[in-house]
Amino acid sequence: MTKSSKVVLFALIKENKILLEKRQVKGFAEDQYLIPGGAINPLETLEDALKREIMEELGITPIDFELLANEDIPGLHQNILKPFIVKSWQGEIPEFILDKKDPYPLEWMEIDKALKTLPIKPTQKIVELLKNYLLKNDTNQT
């Protein structure tokens, strides 16, 4: 039996687009788009995990962020997902994830397009939560 991991995800938002990484996912023939993130270390707070993982993977510092959902979201391979929305950050977004041997490309995708094209259910759920959040809280999003 596989042990589950808690994973922090960071949904970066800019001009009604979400930053996604494209990579191989077990069980899918083609590369898939996912929200970047990483495992939460034992005794690490969610906020500390977010700051560490976003620095490791993107080389940036989150400035304006908050937890997107209080409940645990079931992920692939028995992972438990803890998604954050990140609305501003310090630093430049790279073209590829930084901490991988074979770096995954990053791409900004319109939120509505992501909802229509992402086949992975946990990712779809988080993008739906994100869209609802933006509709409720950020009426000035362009």
Topology:
Layout: E1 6-14, E2 17-23, E3 32-34, E4 37-39, H1 46-58, E5 61-67, E6 73-74, E7 80-90, E8 106-110, H2 111-117, H3 121-137
Helix pairs in contact: 2-3
Question: Can you offer a commentary on this structure?
Answer:
The chain is an alpha+beta fold and 142 residues long. It has a single domain, classed as Nucleoside Triphosphate Pyrophosphohydrolase. The chain contains 3 helices and 8 strands. It has helices at 46-58, 111-117, 121-137, and strands spanning 6-14, 17-23, 32-34, 37-39, 61-67, 73-74, 80-90, 106-110. Strands 1, 2, 3, 4, 5, 6, 7 and 8 form an 8-stranded mixed β-sheet that branches. The longest helix has 17 residues, at 121-137. The chain is globular and about 35 Å long. The chain starts with 5 loop residues before the first strand and ends in a 5-residue tail after the last helix. 28% of the residues are buried.
Structure at a glance:
It contains three helices and eight strands, in the order E-E-E-E-H-E-E-E-E-H-H. By secondary structure, the protein is α+β, with helices and mostly antiparallel strands. Strand 2 and strand 3 form a beta hairpin.
